[in-house]
Amino acid sequence: MLQPKTSFRKNGRIPSWGIMGVTIALCVLMSLAGSPAWATDVFTISSSSQVYEAFKDHGTERFEAKTGAKVQTDVMTSEEALARLVNGFSDMAAIAERLDAGLKRQGYVEIPVCTDEIALLTHVQTTVKNITKDQLQGIFSGDITNWNQLGGPDKPLVVIVPSENSAAFRNFERMVMEGRPMSWDVMVSKSTMAEDIIRRIPWSLTFVAQGATRGKPQGAKVLQVNGIGPGDEGYPYVQTYSLVTKGKPEGYAKVFIDLVFTDSVANHLKSLGMKPIAP
Q1: pLDDT, tens only, 237-264
Q2: Is residue 221 part of a domain?
Q3: Residues 146, 209, 244, CA angle at the centre, nearest 5°?
Q4: Gap between the Cα atoms of 69 and 71, Å rounded
Q5: In whole angstroms, what is the distance from residue 224 CA to residue 126 CA?
Q6: Burial of 3 (0-12, 13-18, 19+ CB in 10 A)
Q7: What pLDDT does residue 33 have?
């Protein structure tokens, strides 16, 4: 049986030691696999799972038609995506948290694309519709473990979270927990997996990017916090999706970024409840 765990962090930025750890692992993989075969006609993007779920391959066909190059997208955590960019495994990173100041000083460029709200998602049979911010902190700190503490039935509350290395986890920890240690029952490797599991486990609860929940099969619903939810004015839990390049974008990277800021992509983002950011 999985035991609750706790974790501590000071902010929502990707720490330099985290990048170093992933860097070492990537170097080991390189030595085992040999030199990668680079091809000038392939534009490689390492993407956060949250960002990929939002964009999918939207705009890829237009990029390929315009350049003749193919787009290869590898999905992982934001931390891993940045590490791959730093180590030359990809041409661009797509991340769901703000770029660390240390990487900016090294010449990496952050291009914010849109904002997306973090939704509190629960199984569809849950009868509770609204909780307070204090109750939200109590749930994810382990102080609240039963739905009857929230005005619901006497059912154990199953808390599911994405990996500690994911941007979703760090953003939630920074914006919601405000320094309180987190506790959970189940941890999954990707933030998008938490959403899928919620639909299968009654009385469970997690947090996800609201844009990724649009158009998905029934089986889950969103809880309000202090009477407001994603899409409502004043909803406080908002994260930023950005593209990152090593140095000023040029070549394929510039073409791709220019396409991201077209009306077509902006309308797609709006259809998912996200807010495009002007270039």
Answers
A1: 999 999 999 999 999 999 999 999 999 9
A2: yes
A3: 140
A4: 7
A5: 13
A6: exposed
A7: 39
Instruction: State the Cα torsion 162-234-210-128 to the nearest 10°.
Output: 80
CATH of residue 75: 3.40.190.10
Cα-to-chain-centroid distance, residue 181: 20
DSSP 123-173: ETT----EE-HHHHHHHHHTS--BGGGGTS-S-B-EEEEE-TTSHHHHHHI
pTM of the model: 0.81
- Do 128 and 75 lie in one domain? The reply is no
The pairing of strands 186-188 and 158-162 is parallel
Triad 35, 37, 42: Cα angle to 5°? 145
Separation CA 157–CA 146 (nearest Å): 5
CA atoms within 13 A of residue 134's CA, in its CB half-sphere = 2
Residue 100 sits in the same domain as residue 120: no
CA-CA distance, 43 to 166, in Å (whole number)?
Answer: 24
> Would you tell me how many other CB atoms lie within 10 Å of the CB of residue 249?
19
